[in-house]
């Protein structure tokens, strides 16, 4: 392992390169551009087998779908409008059971145009069948980008590593990047179970009539849920090999004896942990729950982590305009089977890069001291 | 000879498209991967669990077959397979219109892909709507023959010329009315590397509204009237494949088809003049 002080996008690109993908296809978009550029440099230096410079994100994901259908390990990266432009193919990739991996540098969606971080882009793809892992730190981004290939290839589902734009794409900090030799020990050479092969001709992407369509969709759903075990297993294996795990599906921090919980995903968890450290030092019973796997959603784990708490604040950087906040809705659903449920409040914040400093977390903990559930655009 | 596109597909009687596919595959052989855009071809050949393909086949979406193909070939080559050919077969809707940007990207990168567009001059899979390929005057469900507007009021997009402007190694037009010419072009393109493009006219019985026994005759007449020109552009050099001795009147072609039945004599004359002018420039 090599520890260097480096921009996180560069570290992620290096990690992806060390996974030895057969095909990388990218189109530049802020804030994921540096990942694409660094991979292009690796290709120019002969360190990547291929790199397709596409004319749009729609083409990028289409290229890696083709690459995967032909039996290759394939990767792309994008953000925001790029992911929105990919939308049609995002769904198709999961339905076609193509285990591609993508890093999304999370960014707001237009309009108004905004290049800064929130989760509206990837949360909008939550129903597509993809596995979605949200990262707390740059190091987790690097490690999850590697794990994503292994999870995808063993479940035949595409996997998205979501890293907060700028917070986790542009920070320069000491990061451990596993070497290619180390990655080889963790991530086996990819041998596709199903692929386009003239020696054994088969078809991928047939259309389905009403008598079979639903069962294909149900299979994707069931296999997505079944991927929970794989996500935990892969994170554990990673921890054994590299000495650090990232919490599997969901992870608590200071939560065990806490009455008040802040739950969310992404880089805000770091600030939340800091606030919890400060508050616990003053004797306050507060804790944090980090949701790492948004899809599959860890219903049982969340329920277990939140059972018996007095008040839970669900904080998220996205919304379903005209309805509820998506993570909040999933948390509420997860808690519903409990006889005695915690009070749950919904906090929306950090949209379009709006700052969520540690003091904001303190304010949230203050606001949930009461019994009434809140819905706050913070 | 082994066949790679089997009978039992559900194309209409007289449809040009299975003729295109069958003859192309016979030339291309079995060491290929076919990438297909959403189209009539996809629908008639791949309704799960049925399948007409004897070669590997992938369909993803309507507008991304050129990018899927680019990924397939990059993947093959990255994994050390330098022999399998990648062939896109798409209709005019995906080629001229909705997949045009993606096609342009593939051409600009000169990806090692043979792209065959079977051109039936409208969105036939959805029931005959106007595309960028629909010829002047043709009535479709979205360019109907009304009291004021008589079918499509614009000329066909010159897709082969636009493709050729990308300076790829090989561009050709063909018609299933001249099968030997089409097969020769497929053979030639298959032996080349880089991006190659063949546009082949493929009559549609229901959309064009003609007697289903007349498919080949009509595809031939399109060439003989000068409405459909057969040519190749190889490394930038334009070469006519066939110069009709004496152009037949366009009316012979137009009057065989329901899609042109509303045209009056002035409109037919207008089309004839356009054809005459095009060929005069070829002298």
UniProtKB/TrEMBL annotation, chain A:
EC number: 1.2.7.1
UniProtKB keywords: Oxidoreductase, Pyruvate
Pfam families named in the record: PFOR_II, POR_N
Domain Pyruvate flavodoxin/ferredoxin oxidoreductase pyrimidine binding, chain residue ranges per copy: 14-234
Domain Pyruvate:ferredoxin oxidoreductase core stretches: 258-360
Entry's Gene Ontology molecular function annotations: pyruvate synthase activity
InterPro entries: PFOR_II, Pyruvate:ferred/Flavod_OxRd, Pyrv_Fd/Flavodoxin_OxRdtase_N, THDP-binding, Transketo_C/PFOR_II
Domain of life: Archaea
GO biological process: response to oxidative stress
Quaternary structure and interacting proteins, as annotated: Heterotetramer of one alpha, one beta, one delta and one gamma chain.
Protein name per UniProt: Pyruvate:ferredoxin oxidoreductase, alpha subunit
Native source organism of the sequence: Fermentimicrarchaeum limneticum
Automatic annotation (TrEMBL), chain B:
Transmembrane segments: none
Boundaries of every Thiamine pyrophosphate enzyme TPP-binding domain copy: 46-198
E.C. numbers: 1.2.7.1
Superkingdom of this protein's organism: Archaea
Xref: InterPro entries: PorB-like, THDP-binding, TPP_enzyme_TPP-bd
One MF term in the entry's GO annotations: thiamine pyrophosphate binding
Keyword flag Oxidoreductase: yes
Keywords per UniProt: Oxidoreductase, Pyruvate
Classification via Pfam families: TPP_enzyme_C (PF02775)
Family annotation (CDD domains): TPP_PFOR_porB_like
SUPFAM superfamilies the record matches: Thiamin diphosphate-binding fold (THDP-binding)
NCBIfam families recorded: PRK11865.1
Name of this chain's protein: Pyruvate:ferredoxin oxidoreductase, beta subunit
Organism per entry: Fermentimicrarchaeum limneticum
Species classification: Archaea, Candidatus Micrarchaeota, Candidatus Fermentimicrarchaeales, Candidatus Fermentimicrarchaeaceae, Candidatus Fermentimicrarchaeum
């Amino acid at each position: 392992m090599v520890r260097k002080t480096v921009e996180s996008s560069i570290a992620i690109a290096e990690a992806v390169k060390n996974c030895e993908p057969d095909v990388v296809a990218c189109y530049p978009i802020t804030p994921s551009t540096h990942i694409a550029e660094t991979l292009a440099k690796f290709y120019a230096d002969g360190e990547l087998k291929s790199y397709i410079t596409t004319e749009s994100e729609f083409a990028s994901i289409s290229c890696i779908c083709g690459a995967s259908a032909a039996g290759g390990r394939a990767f792309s990266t994008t953000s925001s409008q790029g992911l929105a432009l990919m939308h049609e193919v995002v769904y198709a990739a999961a339905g076609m059971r193509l285990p591609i991996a993508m890093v999304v540098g999370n960014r707001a969606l237009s309009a108004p145009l905004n290049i800064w971080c929130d989760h509206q882009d990837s949360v909008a793809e939550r129903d597509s069948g993809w596995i979605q892992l949200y990262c707390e730190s740059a190091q987790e981004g690097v490690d999850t980008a590697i794990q994503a290939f292994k999870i995808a290839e063993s479940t035949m589902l595409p996997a998205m590593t979501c890293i907060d734009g700028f917070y986790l794409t542009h920070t320069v900090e000491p990061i451990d990047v596993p070497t290619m030799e180390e990655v080889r020990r963790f991530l086996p050479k990819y041998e596709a179970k199903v692929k386009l092969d003239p020696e054994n001709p088969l078809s991928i992407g047939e259309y389905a009539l009403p008598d079979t369509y639903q069962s294909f969709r149900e299979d994707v759903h069931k296999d997505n849920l079944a991927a929970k075990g794989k996500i935990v297993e892969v994170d554990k294996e990673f921890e054994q090999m590299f000495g650090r795990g990232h919490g599997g599906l969901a992870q608590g921090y200071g939560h065990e004896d806490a009455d008040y919980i802040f739950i969310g995903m992404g880089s805000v968890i770091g600030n939340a942990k800091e606030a919890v450290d400060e508050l616990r030092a003053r004797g306050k019973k507060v804790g944090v729950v980090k949701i790492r796997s948004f899809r599959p959603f860890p219903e049982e784990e969340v329920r277990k982590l939140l059972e018996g708490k007095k008040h839970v604040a669900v904080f998220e950087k996205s919304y379903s305009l005209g309805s509820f906040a998506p993570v909040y809705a999933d948390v509420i659903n997860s808690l519903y089977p409990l006889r005695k449920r915690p009070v749950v409040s919904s906090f929306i914040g950090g949209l379009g890069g709006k700052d969520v400093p540690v003091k904001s977390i303190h304010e949230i903990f203050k606001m949930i001291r009461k019994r009434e559930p809140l819905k706050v655009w913070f | 000879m082994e066949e790679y596109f089997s009978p039992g597909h559900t194309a209409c009687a007289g449809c040009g498209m299975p003729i295109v596919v069958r003859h192309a595959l016979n030339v291309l052989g079995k060491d290929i991967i076919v990438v297909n855009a959403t189209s009539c071809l996809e629908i008639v050949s791949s309704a799960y669990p049925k399948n007409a393909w004897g070669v590997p086949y992938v369909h993803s979406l309507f507008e991304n077959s050129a990018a899927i193909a680019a990924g397939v070939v990059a993947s093959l080559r990255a994994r050390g397979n330098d022999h399998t050919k990648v062939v896109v077969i798409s209709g005019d809707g995906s080629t001229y219109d909705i997949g045009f940007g993606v096609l342009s990207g593939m051409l600009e990168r000169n990806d090692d892909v043979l792209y065959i567009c079977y051109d039936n001059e409208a969105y036939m899979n959805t029931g005959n709507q106007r595309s960028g390929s629909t010829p002047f005057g043709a009535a479709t469900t979205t360019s109907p023959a009304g009291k004021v507007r008589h079918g499509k009021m614009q000329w066909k997009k010159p897709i082969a010329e636009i493709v050729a402007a990308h300076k790829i190694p090989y561009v050709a037009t063909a018609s299933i009315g001249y099968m030997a010419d089409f097969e020769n072009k497929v053979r030639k393109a298959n032996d080349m590397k880089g991006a190659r493009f063949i546009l082949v006219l493929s009559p549609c019985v229901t959309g064009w509204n003609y007697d289903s026994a007349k498919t080949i005759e009509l595809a031939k007449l399109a060439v003989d009237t000068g409405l459909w020109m057969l040519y190749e552009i190889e490394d930038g050099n334009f070469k006519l494949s066939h110069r009709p001795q004496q152009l037949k009147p366009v009316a012979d072609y137009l009057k065989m088809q329901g899609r042109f039945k509303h045209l009056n004599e002035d409109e037919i004359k207008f089309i004839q003049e356009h054809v005459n002018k095009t060929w005069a420039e070829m002298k």
